[in-house]
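User: Structure tokens for both sequences below?

Assistant:
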Amino acid sequence: MASIKHPVFEAHILEGLCRTIGDTADGLTGTEIGQILLNSNIPDIDPQNTKWRRLYSAFAEWQNQHQCSNHILRFVQDALQPVRYIGKEEVFHNRRLEVNKRLSFIGTELTEEGKFRLVAKATTIADAEQRASRLKHKLENRNVHTAVFEYCKAELLFENYFHSVFEATKSVADRLRKLTGLYADGNALVETVFSTTNPLIKINNLLTDTDRSEHIGLCNLIKGVFGLIRNPTAHQPKIKFEITEEEALDILNTISYIHKRLDKAL
């Protein structure tokens, strides 16, 4: 990356980058900005201004003079070195993902290891948002089943918790239909599939009371997800069924667990 002359940021993208790094509440401190500018060999030409304007003045002056963004990227890399965020992992991920939304417009991305890599250049806001979804990142860290991403990709990437959960719950019913050839839905589908007298899917050999209890337990878990999530989300307006990020993560993790149990079905 060091040998590549990186293109300059357009003014509005550079401003967004500076606002993210110099955010009043969550950004770098004034002292940190001064030190990292020094480390990056970028003159601190406006030190008395607000943090993001101070950065913007320094970055704009430097890239206008050198017609590239290399030292700005050096600043970003220094500011987002993982070692700076020990004990502050959430701050690191949120800040990195927001920065990457801006970097994507010049075809660059900062990895979790604090290294740059080249990526296809983003051309729209939606494209940039999709690449830097915080929810998707958290789900990947939880090793969520691929079916969750397959069924709610667009909703996840735009961090739409309501529709992410709705689409993911539908993935379970679709999976059961594909595994069994049935056309039913809801509780009727689940009860037929997990019948204890003639099961179409078995997660164990059903030889002991423990096996039977486990089999019925998964059946009830799936029915519970349908009753708690799919039915309300299908019949209530979004404004009346609010789902927070943490709730979405918990629900999607439960759906992931169901898919992983189905992976092992007999």
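Moving on to the next sequence.
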Amino acid sequence: MWLMPWLRADQPWWGWAALLCVPALALCVDHRWGEPPLRWHPVVWMGRALQWWGERVAPLAPPSEPAVARDLRRFWLGASVWIALSAMVLIVSMVVQHALYLLPGAAAAVLLALVLKPLLAWRMLREEVLAVEAALGESLGAGRTHLARLVSRDVSALSAGEVRESAIESLAENLNDSVVAPLFWFALAGLPGAALYRFANTADAMWGYPGMRSGRYWQWAGKWAARADDVMSWVPARITAALLALAARGLPLRPLAHEARKTPSPNSGWPMAAMALALGVRLAKPGVYVLHSHGRVPDATDMRRAVRVAQGGLTALLPMLAALQGLVWVLAGKVLA
């Protein structure tokens, strides 16, 4: 019952319709006001908890000799902390949603959109990507400096074209991580689904590394977090690719799948490959992968084109989410009847 707005038997049809519009309302709030202050931001709270526990989960250095038992201990310690923290996220979000569903539909929809908004970030992503191009207009060094806010790779030797490639990759990947996936999980499992996804994605960003990062060794301690994010992002990443293909008025499926499999991640390659094909550009991470190798190097107009394609994909997403949410309600109602 915590997923459903059926706690009020007197819910009028327009109340139900308002609840179906929560994702669109959340995007409107995002467009108008952007991110809330850090002290009120739930993703920031998640990050602080993960940082505190990460300092106690991950060792300062890899083991000096092969020690599978020790590594497994770190794995299960990281997994246990992840599960405990995710349970807290689920409980809090379930309580909040339950309380909101006691209100009339329109009021519940508005408040639920306000609570959902911090779990997605389209305006900030769009502005940060466009700011990279604006910085490149000043100098290559300024463009690199601004790009470093978006990506974890070394940007010191990137050319202007490579800076644009990295920014467009970040836009495509984070379109899934920061917008499509949270909204998909909201439609499927309500506020708890969106909150759990954002926790899993944040944990992967902070813990999911195959070696040293920030002075700690994450090979085993962060493996559970990395795999959990892979599982929760699998379907949304492919939906994101389909949305970008739709916004580009169609992309050939076989080349898209071929390009998507070139990245080490099982998921991030899908939206990045779709964006590369949609724009007709080459996207690469030096020494790791090259997507659409026959494409041209992105120029100054491609950043805005990428944003327009992403926006078109989000516009197509909203009716799909409403249909999915309605289907979940119907199916759950039949099961619980």
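User: Anything stand out in the second?

Assistant: The chain has a mean pLDDT of 91.
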